[in-house]
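pasting for ref
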Amino acid sequence: MSQWMNHLPILPVAIPMIVGAFMLVLRDQYRNATIVLGIVSVLAQFCVAVALFGMTTGRIPNDYENHIMVYLLGNWQAPFAIVLVADQLSTIMLILTAVLGLCSLLYSTALWDRAGVFFHPLFQFILMGLNGAFLTGDLFNLFVFFEIFLAASYGLALHGSGMARVAAGLHYVTVNLIASFLLLIAISVLYGITGTLNMADLGLRAATLSGDDRRLFEAACAILGIAFLIKAGAWPLNFWLTSAYSAAVAPVAALFAIMSKVGIYALLRIGSLLLPTGAPAAFSGDWMYVIGLATLLFGTLGILSEKNSGRLVGYCIIMSSGTLLSALGMPSVILTGPSLFYMLSSVLVTSTFFYLIELIKRTESFGGNVLAVSLEAFSADDQDSSDYSGTVVGKPIPFALAFLGLAFFICALVIAGMPPFSGFIAKFALLSKALDLSQTNASTTTSVWLLVVAMLISGMATVIALGRAGIRMFWSSEKLKPPVLSRREAFPVTLLLILCIALTVFAGPVMDQLSLTAKQLDNPGTYMKAVLNSRPAVISSHGGAQ
């Protein structure tokens, strides 16, 4: 059994790849079988991710190396082998991806998987690319997995047809192709300078560069950082995000919420490995901090000026990216743990919001009166009716309407960072650690207070914008059209909100674990040693690995 457990890191990539290929053979003639197969696939990915998390979670302080799993594809030793590396950060992202994948897949079976062809195979390939991007220890294969999930996302961004999706989809495709082109250029230059694309080996070789080679290396890293910032939705490279995400169908947009965090993951992963070499160009804290503040300001202005509900959620994603970039750009590891907690909370709640926006729009074309209890809506407009008491207080609200209203209220509180939910805990932890940093490092005082002010202003802007949107969607119309809400649509919303509440209830243990993850990232030598010291398995005469 232990030998089989050593192969776990490949399964998050292999399972969706095999299942997606098989779905192409099934096509649309066997829809029910395809749905069952897709759900089984995502559940299997979730179980594998949880198992990997358990195997990579360090319980002994400062014992990190023994909790990093390295999988050598082709059984060649690194840096010559293509490697998959599972540590605490990558396995946390795998779990988050599987949860969102399951919720989006269940939601789509109510309607959207029938709105176009090849929905389920493309869905599996997106999961394959995301899982591979979080696991790979090789820059070129990071590019490959980026292209896999982006190619699949191009099809799903246009799923359901319509002029708005085509126009937004063309911008989305064009921008991401440019980003991929920049990524490929940067990777080529890095290979030419260092002779390696293995991330661990790159961190070691970069420390030996000097002169023209070092300057060329810095330039390549700048191009690489720009490509990741485009994918993270950083200003001024995020003009495509709100239109593309708002135009996509709800289950696809909800899954897109984590795609913007892949760029941040890449900046964090590669930046941590380059820290000993003086974190070049876009991976340096100063650059990330400034770009993060600009992104946060752009998102704040956008959310205040936007009236379209779908684009409103897009600006919430931009604001979360700005918060993460500015916090991760601070010169201390103490902000990394709270930043990861904030990322988990923001991804869960923005995904939920995409579901809700579509469900709320069903009440009417836009601005439908969901919660207003009018006389006409409940047949209480007859003044002579014996049960009319002169008021509608106490009249029952249909369950679907009450559910949507309560879910919207919770989402708004989480996104705005209001108590008592996980968004408040995440922002409070970030601000608290930032203020602690200013006490121990006087040079960061100005940066810390700029971050504090920016986060407080963005939180207030979010309260104003979402409060205004709630009034417009729930109370501004005189007509009521209760939506048709299936259990397959209500369950994902409920599950993600429960997870947000669970983050609130178990904030202490979760924050402690994320702090361990931050410490592991702050010790890149353990990652390098684990990868470069991995040895190929010895194949016995009986065909088994030893």
